[in-house]
Sequence to fold (544 residues):
Amino acid sequence: MNKKLRIWLDGPYLIWTAAFIIIPLIMIVYYGLTDKTGAFTWSNILEMGTPERMKALILSLILSLMATVICLLMAYPLALILSRMKTGAVGFITTIFIIPMWMNSLLRILAWQTLLERNGVINQILGMLNLPKLYIINTPYAIALGMIYDFLPFMLLPIYNALQKIDVNVINAAYDLGANRFQTFWKVIFPLSMPGVISGITMVFVPALTTFVISDFLGGSKVLLIGNVIEQQFTQVGNWNVGSGLSLVLMVFILISMLVMQHYDKDIGERTTSL
Amino acid sequence: MRKAISRIYLAFIFILLYAPIAVLIILSFNNSRTRAKWGGWTLKWYLSMFQDQVIMSALWNTLLIAVLSALISTILGLMASVSLLAMKHKKRSIVLSLLNIPMLNAEIVTGISLMLIFIAFGQFLSHWGYMIEFGFGTVLIGHITFNIPYTVLLIMPKLRQINISTYEAALDLGASRWLAFRKVIIPDIMPGVLSGFLLAFTMSLDDFVITHFTKGPGFDTLSTKIYTEVRKGIKPEMYALSTLLFASVLLLILLFGRGRKKKPAPELV
Fold:
């Protein structure tokens, strides 16, 4: 390809990336490290230290880790079951797991209010069965449930893709060499599915850590997550410096999770683009 | 036994995923105005939603932004994918990691950073008396930004599968570069381009966070409208409209999925 053509081809994309991805991120760093007059300060970062915000940050970390672990525990067996199905059924079954995403995501989370309320659908069913009722709406448990529900497909699809790519011959070889089911899974299948597990973990952890919608809808404005704190800084308080400072702290956690992912999977860029 | 357990497990997950959707669909037929009470079956919300100016304009904004952002990001993504293919390994890995930023970063951070850049740009322009209005334009730019990586993600693999010899054969047989590209390359990558467009369209249709931070007062998409309505109670028309959208997308998928199985006949010049 000649040079002139190439500049015309990647020019627009690179300019777009610079203008709307790189420079905006630099803006957050700038706002986060300066005060209203533009002078350098650490105070916006230190704003995270107030008891109320620390509480929100710690709760966010606990809930998002919890949601990630439960998603993994739920999605892995599911991906195993799906990966063993006949190829015809697989297309149909995976579509079934993607279809819910076509209903507006805010409404889907909102529907959990109707399901979980004191006299909601679930409690009425439990009542009919003479089982103890579930009172978790407006508590952190409801938020965790919302996270698991909303992000489960993000965990399922990468693991499923990784399992699909495993060569059946490798598994058969393990059996031929005398490994039992458990050994084959633990020594062959699971390690080979690791890239999917790792990318599933980041795909769930980051959105769960930073959500403000799920906590808004299912926490009944009683429970604040770090996403809510930052969102309020921008839309209600209007202090962009503090908001950016808090975002910078949040980005540290996002960066850590990205680095962990890169550590386990060096070629992540190549891999995610060749799904 | 194992089979029975996996069946039960699949059913459990299925119920978990579809219970909220069932709730929403049933609510769209609820004759009572609040979701707390069941007032019998009705179809009235499916009629009255068309009279609701606010909902209709939010729907129009949502669809227009979804189509435009999917179209523009597919074009930009296609251009980027073609040039990525020709890049040297080192440069390519840099561009690929740039590409990953909006996908791996938190939506709230992307949204805030876009809001800050629009404000800064607005202040810059105001020296010359121009104004930036937060609304359609800013939301559209935001959506294109988060959509580009997804289009590249789906177009790249198709581009890699291309056999460059067929393109060269076309050139040898006297086709111009552009003609060869149009007649040889484009048909090969069309499935990737189409699914990239569809994914971008879906992502845009369902987005809330980026829109929330890049929109201005007086401009709403369906998602932002739902968010502001939550506290005073969602209008039942919203359930009806979402059910209708859900059903039409489902129908489109079924039709598209069936159409894709047929192999398209090779088109001759």
Q: What stands out?
A: Chain A has one domain: 51-235+244-272. The longest helix of chain A spans residues 51-83. Chain A touches chain B through 76 residues (CB under 8 Å).
